[in-house]
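Continuing from the previous page of notes. For each protein in this section, the sequence appears first, followed by its structure tokens. Read the first protein now.
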Amino acid sequence: MDDGQTPVAILHQGSYLVVSIRAALDDDQLDRFRQGLSEAIGRRQTRGVLIDVSELDVLDSFGSRTFRDIAEMARLRGATAVIVGVQPDLAMAMAHLGIDSVSIPTALDLEEGLDVVDNRRPREPAQSRKSQRDENEEKRR
């Protein structure tokens, strides 16, 4: 989908699709992105779709709706969509536009996104993970 007109790359890695969004997309670009991603999921036996938004700093209501639609479309096709690399300003916009970690799981980076897909569960809050890590260390002592 990286055709020079759309700043999006869709990479196939095993049973995963890794999508990199390198700039804000207008409505037409978002429509092409959604369609291209849907076709890519259909051509492959995709378990997970990791959408890297680390270079994105804005999101409008159409973009948030597109992300929710992609997550639902992926779920209906047996895949899990995870948004990774959310920066603070984008997180605020996503929360304001009604995107939460229930409708679309999020992860700090691609590695954590793979963990979310493989475990098919939402990411635990950082505090909870830290508490579990502390408990595991105490058990080992």
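Done with the first. The second protein uses the same format. Note its length before scrolling.
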Amino acid sequence: MFIKGIFIFLFFNALGFGAIAQKLSVEIIAQPQFTSVLGDYNVFVKESYYSNGPSSTAIAEKKNTFKLAAGIMAEYNFSNHFSAGLGIFYSQQGQQYKDFFQSGTWYDMTASDWTQENRTEGEEIFLSYLKLPLQVNYYSDKEKKICFSLHVGFYLGDLTSYKFVSHLYKDGTAYQNMGTSVMDYTTDSYTTTMGTTTVTTYTTTSSYFPNPSSGSYSGNLDSKPFNSFDVGITSGMGINWILSERFSLFANLTYDRGFIDIKKQDSQVTDQTTTPPPPKYYFWGDSNSNRYIKFYNSLFAAQLGVRMNLK
């Protein structure tokens, strides 16, 4: 909340200063974007806990992840060619991963025997930020009907919400939901719940939560698995259509790249399903390299907006 207050204070103070100076323009921006989390995410291949084979890891393949952002920018115009902008945006970000398929022999405690199964695991990271970009803009000539622009700067990001969702399926006549794990910011906890299929053993192939034997599992996060803020660079180019002395339309292509590892490696979960003292687990895994792989935010976006000069 403190960081959000700084964002709002800086933005509206810039807005008021520019209005007095009569050199301010205000932009309202919609931003469809492709986002990604840079850094590998490992999934288990044939987990040894309930498997008769060795355990190894494989890198999950990423999917194109489409999200939305929107915001407002106050721009102080030094001349027809140069300006400085300060904005505030709400930005949905994250990463989807392609379903990972594996075939192996798992021990079925109901049948008391080894069974051949195909299993599919899928993950998605949901992140939402309140972002404050500060940038310098160059325009070819604002007095012309059409002009081109470049911008470069940096941003501060305050994490407002996050969610990590994992699904695990096994085959039958069709894929059956074995369980879904949801880690949610609003409660600082996550719950693993089995699906409707009848199984007595539940082996998760996800690397970040422990293996419940059956039913459901719940745990409390001792600390959030993502850092509360992000810092990075922003840059891009665009085209502007001057409609009148006060109004114009613009379309930009922009790229943001974070500098800070958004993963909190030492985040732990306290098991709430056992008697005291409850065991603790590292959220990002105890026994594989996920915990030590750094995550960085990245996005490529189209900015579509309208600009109004306040003079």
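What the second structure shows: Residues 47-52, 172-179, 184-216 have pLDDT under 50 and may be disordered. The helical segments are 2-21. We return to this in next week's lecture.
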